[in-house]
Amino acid sequence: MFLANFRYIYAAIMKKIAKNDETLQGKNPSNETLPFSVDTTVFTKKPTQKEIEQLRWHPTSGSILDVLKHAASGRAFTCGVFHDNHRKSEKLIKQQIFAVDFDGGMTLKEAEAILKEYNLSYNGGYYSFSHSYKVEKFRLLFVFDGEVHDHIVAKEILSGYSAP
User: Fold this and answer.
1) Cα dihedral 9, 13, 93, 1 in deg (nearest 10)
2) Rounded to whole angstroms, how far apart are CA atoms 46 and 72?
3) DSSP state of 104
4) Residue 15 pLDDT
């Protein structure tokens, strides 16, 4: 049920976006131990594509607040754990956190209002390096009830709902 609601709300948010360094603790922060991967490089601005390609992912686990602390310190993370620590969708081992980026098409308040319409909430989030008060850019994190082990399912969750 949650997955179906998440798909619907994600589609609604993406359609609205098509039309138009602080962490955000969601209304339902999860205290459960979640899998994710980290790199220890500290960034003070948005990394370039070359810098992203040089990251080395190390699997770890922790709460959603641990993920937010890592992000707030300027360090990169990815929501999944991958074979050979290479962040490629076909190498996915497991993922339970899903991130949705908002790059200026909607404010946090607008996103929260849409989530509220569907009785959903995010578990955490943060403003991105390129965020400004004129153009809000942020990422919201959603924790699923269980791990996703199939890279096709994980990819469909996030990329199958782009706005036309």
Assistant:
1) 0
2) 13
3) S
4) 43
CB 54 within 8 A of CB 20: no
What pTM does this model have?
0.77
The set of residues, in sequence order, having a beta carbon less than 8 Å from that of 92 and lying 6+ positions away, is 80, 81, 82, 83, 148, 149, 150, 151, 154
How confident is the model at residue 20, as a pLDDT? 36
Q: How far apart are CA 93 and CA 151, in angstroms?
A: 8
Hey, what are 26's tokens? 């969601």
Query: What are the C-alpha distances in Å from 128 to residues 22, 27, 84, 125, 138?
Result: 8, 20, 28, 9, 5
Distances (CA, A) of 15 to 18, 71, 100, 106, 161: 5, 27, 14, 11, 9
Q: Which residue numbers in the chain have pLDDT < 50?
A: 1-5, 13-24, 27, 160-164
In the sheet where 124-127 sits, what is the strand order?
Answer: 23-25, 124-127, 137-148, 92-103, 80-82
- 5 Cβ neighbours under 8 A, 6+ residues apart: 118, 119, 120
Give the pLDDT score at 101: 87
> What is the structure's pLDDT at 163?
40
> pLDDT at position 82, please?
95
